[in-house]
Design brief:
The structure is a homodimer.
Chain A lengths: L7 H9 L9 E12 L2 E8 L9 E2 L2 E3 L6 H13 L5 E8 L10 E9 L13 E7 L11 E4 L2 E3 L5 H16 L12 E2 L1 H12 L5 H10 L3 E7 L9 E5 L5
Parallel strand pairs in A: 1-6
Antiparallel strand pairs in A: 1-2, 1-4, 2-3, 2-7, 5-6, 7-8, 8-9, 10-12, 11-12
The first copy, chain A, binds a DNA duplex through helix 5.
DNA sequence: TTAATAGTGTCTCTGAGACACTATGTG
DNA sequence: CACATAGTGTCTCAGAGACACTATTAA
């Protein structure tokens, strides 16, 4: 089939598929590492050592290798920066407005990772922070996340506050119908800890009896028969997530 | 600040941000144009005029220009193929596994567009089809969509069935908390038409009184006082969407 | 009048919050 | 024993399905 046999519509279609007609682009991955500490959502940020935005806090990121899937690249970036492996990781959104990076045109495939606070070393690496996320419910419309470091509001480099806003929005949307949140807890956990995670994600308190009923009714939880220890009051039973993982 | 002042951790970080250390990639956009006809979800597919998958049905797509945002590129592809402008368009997911395109490494930023059936010409262009989407509720876990053309199941090129599966999954997730579906209807519509759209997306029937109550309770609808015409039975009142658009 | 659909009133069921209560660990 | 939290029983309320009914138009 030569091109002469095609009608104009199909010729236009073919042109649109010619890779040589379009320049190749730099593609990066950014990773929002999210955890819950003291009932609050937090995300890892790192200090940028070079322009643009030198000295600002930013999400860890890196460039996508030619033979690397976006998810693998995100996992590599995360492992390089934190040493964490086997973390729950999900693609979020691709940011590609020309001009979002002042240097050159860079496409960024944003991801988010969920990890229990217990797996994070107490002291983040040099220049790293665990920034608190403050997202009003209006953030549901896609607004940027407020970011608080050491009790002071901070601005993030690039459009990274917007990325964090979308992360929280995504978590809030998923938690309504999917077993989200277990990635933020250890292997076993109490129902109180699970409720704290839900409250941190949704940004509001919930009634204890209703929460217990709803969680146990999903059938995704199995009581281990063991109790938590190291508490100065009545220990709670430990549960394990045994449902279909999200 | 020279690189010698940086500690090893930051040097690794810098290397990860060096654009020259990574090859640039071809980036495409694919668009799933979705509509509802006869109470069924349908998506536009076009026949591929060239290898790979020559002759197969595929989603319309094209390459991303260097100074073009992904959304703009998707709108351009859609306008080129269908002549439609001002359509509701949203980014879905970026597919980037090496090997998903047998020719070369191509990243594809998938989008979906929602358009009322009335805006689609009765006869799709040459090689175009309006394929019916069949997605079981298990598709919620992300499985591919079944695609039916002229009552026969069809396979789509590349991973496009998976893209359509994610589109339906996304619509089902959003419709639970956001005013989704009005983009699939005209400026005014009856509650019965709105219910048909919801039933098409969710893949199940719903009770009429409960649906009416729920929709009217959102406050997003305004009765126009006008009635539909051209029906052989009692005409229904026409409503207009006046809430915050999704 | 018949047919077909629009639109509504009511009952019931389910799921969640509020509240109060009992249970069980530490000191 | 006091105290703090775990865990539960019960009431109430809001939202949704089921069902039956009335309303309105065309033929």
């Amino acid at each position: 089939m030569s091109a002469d046999e095609l009608d104009p519509e199909d010729r236009k279609f073919l042109a649109g598929y010619d890779p040589e007609a379009y320049e190749r682009l730099s593609v990066a991955v950014d990773v929002a590492l999210v955890t819950v500490i003291d009932g609050r959502l937090r995300a890892l940020t790192v200090k940028r050592p070079e322009p643009p935005y030198r000295g600002w806090q930013a999400l860890p990121g890196g460039f996508l290798g030619v033979d690397e899937s976006p998810e693998r690249a995100a996992a590599r970036v995360l492992a390089d920066k934190t040493g964490l492996e086997g973390v729950y990781l999900e693609q979020l959104y691709t940011f590609g407005e020309p001009g979002r990076d002042p240097r050159t045109r860079v496409l960024s495939i944003a991801h988010y990772a969920l990890v229990p606070a217990s797996r994070l070393s107490k002291a983040p690496g040099p220049g790293s922070q665990l920034a608190e996320l403050v997202v009003s419910w209006e953030g549901e419309e896609g607004g940027p996340a407020g970011v608080v470091i050491d009790r002071a509001p901070r601005r993030l480099a690039f459009d990274h506050a917007r990325i964090l806003g979308m992360v929280v929005q995504r978590l809030r949307g998923k938690i309504a119908y999917a077993p989200v949140g277990y990635e933020l807890l250890g292997d076993t956990f109490t129902l109180r800890e699970l409720q704290e995670v839900h409250e941190a994600i949704l940004g509001r308190g919930m009634s204890k009896p209703a929460f217990r009923r709803r969680m146990l009714a999903t059938g995704d939880l199995t009581a281990t028969g063991e109790m938590e220890s190291d508490v100065a009051y009545r220990p709670a039973e430990l549960y394990r997530f045994t449902g279909r993982p999200g």
